[in-house]
Amino acid sequence: MPTRARRRCPRCHQPHDGRGTECAACRYRAVTVVYGPPCAGKNTYVREHARTGDLVLDVDALALALGSPVDHGHHPALVPFAIEARDAIVRRLSRSHELRHAWVITTRLDLLDALPGAEVVTLAVDADTCKQRARQAGRPARWDTLIDRWWRDHRNHPRP
Predict the structure, then answer these.
(1) Is the N or C terminus of the chain more exposed, i.e. has fewer CB atoms within 10 Å?
(2) DSSP character for 121?
(3) Confidence (pTM)
């Protein structure tokens, strides 16, 4: 009885049994999730590492594109639209794509689950440093609460 031919990944050319055209390792190879608390330096990290033509996904940038007059602390009516746009792009990143690289900036742990196999860079900057950066950036006092909440909710997440 003849054996069934296995598909080959167009990126790495290795055989695989997956349903898509690419193997799972290659599908997410071009995606890096930069994760950490507010004011940890996620945007700075991506600016320093991304190249021209890379996709950069950031809810704050989406909110600005949707009409927010501020770069953080958006009007609550805009936030659901920015979140839905982010989620649609994450779903699209989970399929085969021709991007050289995509960067996903997030404070949310659930995005790590949405892109299994993506490289994860965790910026576990301590709460005091994040709060100092928030004050230097002129963010409202409630940012201290957001930072404390992130550390409370994510304290058991593995560090880099």
Answers:
(1) N
(2) E
(3) 0.79
